[in-house]
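Quick start: read one record
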Amino acid sequence: MKIAIIHDFITKLGGAEFVLKVLHKIYPEAPIYTLLYDNEGTKGEFSGSNYKIITSKLQKLPRFLRLHNKFLLSYYPRAIEEFDLSRYDVVISSSNSFAHGVITRPETLHITYCYSPMRYAWDWGHKYLNENNIGFGIFVGLKIRKIISDLRIWDFLASRRTDQWVAISRTVAERIKKYYKKESVIIYPPVDIKPFLDNHFSPQDYYLIVSRLTPYKKIDLAIKAFNQLKIPLRIIGEGSDAKRLKKLAGANIHFSGWLRDKEKNKAFKQSKVFLFPGEDDFGITPVEAMASGRPICAYGAGGATETIIGGKTGEFFYDYDNIESLKKSVLKIENNYSSYTTENCQEQAKKFSEEIFIKKFQQFTSQAYRKHLEEYKA
């Protein structure tokens, strides 16, 4: 059985890229097709000889354009369709935008592991336009709005090319059903919890955020709240919003930038509470924090509601843009800290281990392929 893996972009490191590494661990002979690849942006994680990365023709463009991929939105559908996958029996798309749009033979099983339907084309469409100050200007605004409208049409039609949809959470499964009119199986993403379980550190007096520094992560809300609470907050990560966030932060807030795994894991283990102020489709970092034995303070929507147990492994706040709502949740944790035990947090984290993901995904793929062959031959 010849397998290929398709991933939208391999230009930065995040949760989707960790899943990609695990998919490649399951199918080590599978080449990885991607629209764009950047070795520097991914810290060399995919540069080993065990990875065969095949890029689209867009890889030939200058690096500046490749790193600002919103300028290339209208080019991605055609580029993803040009990959020749005719020699593969199974194609696995690792997708939150374009990967599921590849074209396969009728006898090829196409599975899409979906992080979410393309959010800037669907449920975040208006928010995306507002955050990027895209109005109705004749030369730019209307052009970009037309591109996104065209992408929405392409995306819906491309969704028909997938034979089996797998969602990373119930939240994503609901979006797949709403926008693509497709049912999906839920297999939670893998989390490498082993480095966190053996925690001999006592919690220090700081809250922790580990995240890309981008607007939708709502780190600005956390900074404003902690400026008032005066509780130490440590932020690990880098991103386009870093400069603005640093200007907002008071003296009790420390930015550590990007850290290697050993240093980052130590920060998880030494933290008192993990803070997750934005809405995510799953959220790997809260699981890593629970594996370290630490409770979570999270916004009560999206994947966090499927991984965190309120009152047992953390607390939720529900008013997305309200500083007081977040502060109230933090103070509740402070007043009841002993009730969030290390044992409860770690037991919950174990439900999302890498081993469980590998077993479920292998089993699903094998069964789906057998069924696909039977239906094709019939």
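The longest helix spans residues 354-377.
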